[in-house]
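so my prof wants the structure for this chain in the tokens format not the other one, which i didnt know existed until like an hour ago. anyway here's the sequence
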Amino acid sequence: MLTFKEVLSLKTDILDKYKVKYVRHKDNRKQYRELIKDRAELLKYQADQSKNVFEKCDYIASFVGIEQSRAVFIGMFKVDGIKENSCGYEYVLNEVDGFDDFKERLVIDWGKSAITWHQWVDSNPKNIVELLPKGYLGEFPGLLDFTLEYTELKKLGENLSANREWYLQLSSINGIYLILDKVTGNQYIGSAYGKEGIWQRWSEYSKTGHGGNELLKDLCLMTL
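here's what i got, hopefully its the right format
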């Protein structure tokens, strides 16, 4: 079985020449897509630590924990600085280019020591267990209780083959849905009864943001 180090070494010598740690972020309350959709917030969380965990690192290979002991690669970061503050330590972490083919796609088995969220690369080989399709949104959560940010809806529309279960579920049922403007709090209630169910209507929203609705057109113009 291929390891993360073996595969990444085909693109870079960072893992061979420098001191690198694996970092696994995990929030048991949230699903994969909830953790990755606010990337800026996740990276800020990564940079602020109560202990000096990256003191001797040159780079960190960062992951988001998902089900069981698996983790998805989200990027390689160079440790370019550190300063102490009242809460602990703040790191300057600059993302390294060249890993777009693997980001949010390459899944490793973190192993039995899931509680140890930062580990040295050299002494902790991680097996690759999956390469997710490009544009993967995460497992479909069920029809009765889910929401999508517009960025997620757009991603879904652009990557249907990577999210086939989403498409099959949403195109197989008609229904009523709600659109919320998070800025004003305004709500729009719509219904879908086309041949491809809810997805037939939502696919139009994914392309335009308004789906031809005049009120939503005005709202989209206001936010430009």
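also thought this was worth mentioning. The radius of gyration is 21 Å.
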